[in-house]
Design a protein that fits this description.
The protein has 295 residues and is α/β, with parallel strands linked by helices. 40% of the residues lie in helices and 17% in strands. It has three domains: 3-82 and 255-276, Rossmann fold (3-Layer(aba) Sandwich); 85-169, 3-Layer(aba) Sandwich (Rossmann fold); 171-245, NadA-like (Rossmann fold, 3-Layer(aba) Sandwich). The protein has 14 helices and twelve strands. It binds iron/sulfur cluster (SF4).
């Protein structure tokens, strides 16, 4: 029996479901029950009808699934699957900024730790950041940890956006520079990229937004400025169109820690289980649920 069949059998035997992010390799996407962006995965995680969720993504995504499913076992196949951007922000920094800007609301990107989420007013993803910010009654918003997404939101709202911290970013997306991306097709740019790259884009969109944009477009050739494996997702959905990574070195090392072999081990030995202290989970859940009420 090959690894794929073994994983399928274990899934059935243990009543498990595999959720995978768009940045996973094609083989991991193909074994998953559902593939999506952070917002789609968070929504999916709320309605999972299974005892075990195996999360093929990075740590903050598995944490979000656990926060929304406190009674389910949530597993991440590798402890090394983490998001570097999340490490730019700490709960202490949020306290400090709140003291400095007492009138402001705190909006945190889903790419943040559970401890930070517990201190936020509301969470957002790159798919709904503008709507979430506009839904607030405060005119000043502390937005973190991604300063590029903060800059993108600032171009789409009348509110004052203060990045929290000033230098938070994703190395995968900031290394996609105006000078190294290809331009020989419709250029789709993720809002985690620099504002300079966003300015020359044909469309700025989350990965889920890119899927929707391609579905409506008559164009045949797209340059994809985000993590390289997003083209695997697009190629599976639109086999008659061509997708090219804007830069072939745009690879998220955290995402690539997930493999078929550690998914198999994760299911077999029920490792590594995500656990979040109840007081943190309760406050983080409130902030995530507020986001889900907006969009
Ligand atoms: S691509 Fe960047 S923001 Fe996304 S998980 Fe990887 S390090 Fe984090």
């Amino acid at each position: 029996m090959n690894l794929i069949e073994k994983i399928k059998n274990l899934k059935k035997e243990k009543d498990a479901i595999i959720l995978a992010h768009n940045y996973q390799t094609r083989e991991v996407q193909e074994i998953a029950d559902f593939v999506g962006d952070s917002l789609e995965l968070a929504r999916k995680a709320m309605n999972v009808d299974a005892k075990i969720i195996v999360f093929a993504g990075v740590d903050f995504m598995a944490e979000t699934a656990k926060i929304l499913n406190p009674d389910k076992k949530v597993l991440i196949p590798s402890r090394l699957a983490s998001c570097e951007m999340a490490s730019y922000l700490s709960p202490e920094m949020i306290d400090e900024y709140r003291k400095k800007y007492p009138e402001a609301k705190v909006v945190l990107y889903v790419n943040s730790t559970a401890t930070c989420k517990a201190k936020a007013d509301v969470i957002c993803t790159s798919a709904n950041a503008v709507e979430v910010v506009n839904s607030l009654d405060s005119n000043t918003v502390l937005f973190g940890p991604d300063s590029n997404l903060a800059a993108y939101v600032a171009t789409k709202t009348n509110k004052k956006i203060i990045p929290l911290p000033a230098n938070g970013h994703c190395y995968v997306h900031t290394n996609l520079g105006v000078e190294n991306v290809r331009r020989d097709g419709i250029l789709m740019v993720h809002p985690e990229c620099s504002i300079e790259l966003q300015k020359i884009a044909d469309v700025v969109a989350s990965t889920g937004g890119m899927v929707k944009f391609v579905a409506k477009s008559n164009a045949k050739r797209f340059i994809v400025a985000t993590e390289r494996d997003m083209v695997s997702r697009l190629a599976r959905d639109f086999p008659d169109k061509e997708f090219i990574p804007a830069w072939s070195n745009a690879i998220c090392l955290g995402m690539k820690q997930i493999t078929l072999s550690n998914i198999y081990n994760s299911l077999k030995d029920e490792i590594y289980e995500i656990e979040i202290p109840e007081d943190i989970a309760k406050n983080a859940r409130r902030a995530i649920e507020r986001m889900l009420e907006v969009k």
